[in-house]
Write a structure and sequence with these properties.
Chain A: Keywords: Membrane, Transmembrane, Transmembrane helix. The complex is a heterodimer. Chain A is mainly α. In chain A, 73% of the residues lie in helices and 0% in strands. In chain A, helix 1 packs across helix 6 and helix 11 runs antiparallel to helix 12. The chains are: A mainly alpha, B alpha/beta.
């Protein structure tokens, strides 16, 4: 099976491409650490006023903050993964080059984004999290199974993240420019994935809605699995359902989009 | 010279000639002696097995919606390719030229299967491209002068390893092909260089190698020498000539550079407004276009127009610089010698006619035809 070796090769390439930009990675680590500090002090102030907000105690809230910073670039919570490149390729017509290849467009970009995501766990995730654990009182489990369950939850989280951004990128086939879509992805991502506040802390109907949206599968689910606040199987089922739905939608849109290829670079 | 909308009489003779001149090994089966005759026949066009690329009355119509006012939209049909018929024999190298927006890219997109024709019949290696795009992709190579298939951030060799997987090239064949391409395209020192650090000429050679690793039977080249300096152009052309002569790869070459065509193609097809305007040897195109070259001379001071022997004539004077036009079919040497002998010549250069100019003249020569073309053309 050639395809069985192609997409891993694409993923390895995606990993290595991001690994070449060391200064950018270092800058990202610094930024995530600083943002983590700001958020931690904000959360501590908030949790002083409202203890057990969203069901978290202070240590859990602090852990949630550092998880968010650690997964911020891996899950491209504000966008900024391979979809930027895909948008540019669609806009310039270079996407035609990708279509000439005997490879599936969606799997190709998924593999590439997985490679990127795995690099960014290591390159941008570990340091801010360890920093947080050293400086603050965190609710980090000792149980290796909790960590394993967390690691498993990251995989569908990455796929859901890709699924959202792939749909956003494909919209450029119709819109011709990705700036507006990227901004929508960013705003929705910050709000709906729980980067501002844990989704558990959202009140009433609004909370029910955001916890049912695909963004909840990205940060909230893995965090709750690690903090022991949800059964891993329930989290996986929720994540997998959204992953499948988004990939299927991506496939449909891709089929419609490639029929339009022509228009650019005619 | 037959300048005809269809691939008429002129094309047939040329196609046969090109196939006969090919030195590739027996791509067409059969005993060695009979093979050349078979190829000659097959190449004569028509729906025989020898026609590797085959278009029969192919058209592509796009619906373009344009906003004409508040909430008002106008639908307009654009014929990007209109009633296009031609065949290319296995092993032939054909120049496919035309002005921007003529329908070249649309044709190539249909040939590779990413676009479905609106009408007509199209076959590449017996395959209908749009139905079996992935299967066909194993047999074709595509190179764009202005777009790269290489991984921008990574060393060149990483992109080749990816091709290895993508085209499922057996390991031994991959090694052999890579070694051969690296040697012929002089890529050895560049393999570990990130693509973004390559010069345009180096990147182009890298792209050509990437397109050939899986031994495609046909190579589509879209402006392979665009933006390259003279030395890089020569290198790319040398390699393509070798490819044509030694491996018998079928090549369809799109370019704006007449010299690419002159040096590589025995046959040229001109497309404009989605229609085939000319199909035959390049010499015939020059005749049809009565094209002219321009000799630019710098004299050491301002002088009245030089007295050039006919048919050369001065077309422009600007200070000490003068422009002389003379037919492409005539050597520049006597003209240069005469001016050098009689005038204080400081510097000179010869400008080859570009394809646009040749085509423009072709139209001018047959104004009625051009005028009578239906107005359903590209915006």
């Amino acid at each position: 099976m050639g395809a069985g070796r192609l997409y891993p090769a694409v993923a390895v390439g995606g990993f290595r491409r991001y690994a070449t930009y060391r200064a950018a990675t270092a800058a990202g680590v610094f930024t995530n650490t600083v943002f983590g500090l700001i958020l931690v002090y904000t959360y501590l102030a908030l949790w002083d006023e409202k203890p057990h907000l969203g069901g978290y105690d202070q240590a859990q809230a602090v852990t949630y903050v550092w998880l968010g910073q650690a997964l911020y670039s891996t899950l491209a919570l504000q966008g900024g993964g391979v979809e930027k490149e895909l948008m540019a390729r669609i806009r310039t017509g270079e996407i035609a080059v990708d279509l000439y290849r005997p490879a599936d467009l969606q799997l190709w970009w998924l593999a590439s984004d997985m490679g990127r995501a795995v690099f960014q766990i290591l390159g941008r995730g570990v340091v801010p999290f360890v920093f947080g654990a050293l400086v603050f009182d965190m609710a980090v489990p000792d149980d290796p199974f909790a960590w394993a369950a967390f690691a498993v939850a990251l995989l569908p989280a990455m796929v859901v993240s890709f699924g959202i951004r792939y749909l956003a990128a494909l919209s450029v086939f119709w819109l011709m420019d990705g700036t507006g879509v990227s901004q929508a992805v960013m705003v929705l991502g910050i709000f709906c994935s729980g980067m501002v506040l844990p989704l558990n802390a959202f009140p009433g109907v609004l909370g029910d809605i955001v916890r049912a949206l695909p963004w909840a599968a990205q940060l909230q689910m893995p965090a709750d699995v690690l903090l022991g606040r949800t059964a891993p199987v329930a989290a996986y089922a929720f994540q997998a359902a959204w992953a499948v739905a988004l990939l299927a939608a991506g496939r449909l849109v891709q089929a419609a989009a490639t029929r339009r290829v022509v228009v650019q670079g005619g | 010279m037959a300048v005809d909308g269809g691939p008429g009489g002129a094309a047939d003779g040329i196609t046969g000639g090109a196939a006969g001149g090919r030195t590739g090994d027996g791509a067409v089966g059969g005993p060695e002696g009979a093979a050349s005759a078979v190829r000659g026949d097959a190449a004569r066009g028509g729906p025989s097995d020898g026609a590797f690329i085959e278009l029969d009355r192919v058209e592509k119509v796009f619906d373009v919606r344009r906003r004409t006012g508040f909430l008002k939209r106008e639908r307009r049909r654009v014929r990007a390719v209109d009633d296009l018929s031609f065949t290319v024999a296995r092993g032939e190298t054909v120049g496919y030229i035309g002005p921007n927006g003529a329908g070249k890219s649309t044709t190539i997109k249909m040939l590779t299967g990413i676009l479905t024709p609106s009408g007509g019949r199209l076959r590449v290696a017996g395959i209908e491209p749009s139905r079996e795009r992935t299967r066909l992709a194993q047999r074709i190579g595509v190179v764009f002068g202005q777009r790269t298939t290489l991984w921008w951030d990574l060393p060149l060799v990483d992109s080749y390893r990816l091709m290895h997987r993508m085209y499922r090239i057996p390991d031994a064949r991959y090694r052999a092909n890579l070694d051969r391409l690296v040697e012929h395209l002089d890529l050895g020192p560049l393999l570990d260089t990130p693509v973004r650090q390559l010069s345009l000429g180096q990147r182009m050679r890298g792209d050509i190698a990437a397109a050939l690793l899986h031994d495609p039977e046909v190579l589509y080249l879209d402006e392979p020498t665009i933006g390259l300096d003279v030395i890089s152009k020569a290198r790319v052309r040398d390699f393509l000539r070798e490819l044509r002569d030694e491996r018998g790869t079928t090549v369809l070459l799109t370019t704006h550079d007449l010299q690419d065509i002159e040096q590589l193609c025995s046959r040229v097809m001109v497309i404009d407004h989605g229609r085939l305007m000319y199909d035959g040897p390049l010499a015939g195109l020059h005749e049809a276009g009565e094209s002219e070259r321009i000799l630019v001379v710098d004299l050491d001071r301002e002088l009245p127009p030089v007295d050039a022997p006919a048919p050369a004539r001065v077309v422009k004077v600007e200070g000490p610089r003068q422009w002389l036009a003379f037919p492409s079919s005539v050597s520049a040497a006597p003209l240069v010698a005469r001016i050098a002998a009689e005038y204080p010549l400081v510097d000179l250069s010869v400008r080859e006619p570009d394809i646009e100019a040749v085509i423009a003249r072709m139209y001018a020569g047959q104004g009625n035809r051009a005028a009578s073309r239906p107005p359903t053309s590209i915006a």
